[in-house]
Amino acid sequence: MRVAIFARAPLPLGVHLDAEGFALCEVRSTARGAELRRVVFEAFGGREPAEALTAAVHANGWRHRLCVTSLAAERALLHAVHLPSMPASERRAAARLEAERLAPDRDVALAVDLSALPGGWLLAAAPQAEVRAAAARAEAAGLRVRAVDVATLALARAIGAQSGDAIVDAGERRAVVHLVTEAVPFVRPLPSWGTCAELAAPLAEALEFAASRGFGAARRVVVAGTLALEDGIVERLASALGRAVSLAELRADVSADEHPLDYVRASAPRWLTACGLALWSLRSMASCA
Length: 289
Description:
- By secondary structure, the chain is an alpha/beta fold.
- It has helices at 49-60, 88-102, 128-139, 151-159, 196-212, 233-241, 261-278; strands at 9-10, 13-17, 21-30, 33-43, 66-71, 77-81, 110-117, 120-127, 144-150, 165-170, 175-179, 186-190, 220-224, 245-247, 254-255.
- It contains seven helices and 15 strands.
- Strands 1, 2, 3, 4, 5, 9 and 15 form a seven-stranded mixed β-sheet that branches. Strands 12-11-10-13-14 form a five-stranded mixed β-sheet, sandwiched between helices.
- The radius of gyration is 19 Å and the shape is globular.
């Protein structure tokens, strides 16, 4: 009889799409912890998103098709709520009432969920049509969607973000700053930019605004997305901001031993959100997200 001491269990695939391309990430859960198994990231290159994603899924021959996909952070409402002890069904009903009260458009049907925070709950709500559309993009590639997660939470989970970490996720068409806190993260899209100086000014303004609204001061700034792949970006942005900046890296407690370290470090900014989605079912891992 063969006994598996360090058995490997597949987790749902992480699937992240944005305006420029997509990333797929496979993580396995072992007795020693989480292990990065495989990542695929590509630009659309003129292809339809469903076509590109379908080709990648088939080309890589994933046997299991369960996945967690993402919703853009700025499309979701995140809010801390404090609820008395009550049955789960009543808690869900209370969360929906609170989401409907906070929603800017009362006529839009909402998808609502709760996750535990120290001393309370994190309420996440988004237009139901947009959540379904995010799921449909993955399902069109033959995947089965387990959950739709907010991109902010997935990205913070992937790097093991702590309170005070400001994550700048920027590509050619879109830039967003996510300031992680002990409760609700601060999220703000940044205006179009062409140089580091043009990005630094609105970024500094956003962080100053977040601090003035009680989200706390940024402890460090990390860069993710295709922006992070530009040569010298860390040094140029640090000079423009007047503060230390680093590249976003995979959290230390996720093993990547099967991949060259240089490859993981160089490519991680492209697939970290997908990795955080793959870690969705391991949300008990130490992280503010």
